[in-house]
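Input (structure):
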């Protein structure tokens, strides 16, 4: 079986290329599951209920989120009714929304959840290592394979979590930095890993934002409005192939230009 994990979708350009490309990739590459991080899908910060529904209707099976989960007003209410959207599992338990998803295809049950890193991340979250352990233990017997997204800044924290879950997860894939890493591979125990799957959106940019105002802020430290850019739109993601036991046998990073 195959899953495609789409890296951080940024703004309208990111949404548009997912809608245009993801259905084609599903057919061409024989993909069974399409999962996307969409925490920056609304104007580059957060997501709305309407945008989530549009992405799901375009061929995305499940949506994960990160530290910008609550940036859009009212989403704390919207998320409750979104059955295929989950917020980070290690946020405080009082947070609304699902802390995991289980999606199924041809009898295979794929567990999907996200943990936030704690290095250089603003949101207060519980230990991602202990949280991942607890989710896997709590849901044991209810899934055949697990995709664990680690939404974190530090590559060391991502790598450490990958090794911590090696042999227990089908894949551990990183998001948040918007810059793809060249370390896609299979860890011991047949767990696919990549520090960061990259950004889906405008690459003629600085992390998806217009270049000039970002450069200006670095030059003089004055505040500027940094809108989502528009040029060189690309879909970035990681493709994982695995068997009926949830053991990964192949992983590759892919990028498709719009």
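Output (sequence):
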């Amino acid at each position: 079986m195959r899953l495609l994990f789409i890296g951080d979708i940024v703004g309208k350009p990111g949404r548009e290329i997912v809608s245009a490309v993801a259905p084609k990739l599903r057919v061409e590459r024989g993909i069974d599951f399409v999962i996307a991080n969409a925490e920056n899908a609304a104007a580059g910060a957060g997501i709305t209920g309407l945008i989530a529904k549009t992405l799901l209707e375009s061929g995305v099976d499940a949506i994960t989120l990160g530290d910008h989960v609550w940036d859009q007003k009212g989403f704390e209410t919207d998320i409750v009714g979104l059955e295929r959207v989950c917020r980070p599992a290690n946020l405080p338990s009082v947070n609304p929304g699902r802390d995991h998803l289980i999606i199924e295809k041809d009898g295979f049950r794929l567990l999907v959840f996200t943990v936030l890193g704690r290095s250089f991340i603003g949101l207060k979250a519980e230990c991602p290592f202990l949280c991942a352990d607890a989710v896997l233990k709590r849901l044991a017997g209810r899934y055949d394979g697990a995709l664990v997204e680690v939404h974190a800044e530090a590559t060391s924290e991502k790598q450490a979590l990958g090794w911590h879950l090696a042999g227990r997860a089908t894949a551990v894939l990183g998001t948040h930095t918007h810059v793809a890493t060249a370390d896609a591979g299979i860890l011991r125990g047949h767990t696919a890993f990549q520090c960061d799957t990259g950004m889906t959106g405008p690459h003629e940019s600085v992390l998806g934002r217009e270049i000039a105002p970002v450069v200006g802020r670095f030059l003089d430290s004055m505040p500027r409005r940094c809108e989502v850019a528009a040029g060189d739109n690309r879909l970035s993601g990681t493709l994982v192939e695995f068997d009926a036991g949830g053991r990964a046998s192949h992983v590759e990073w892919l990028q498709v230009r719009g």
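Notes: Residues 2-257 form a domain with the Purple Acid Phosphatase; chain A, domain 2 fold (CATH 3.60.21.10). Residues 11-28 form the longest helix (18 residues).
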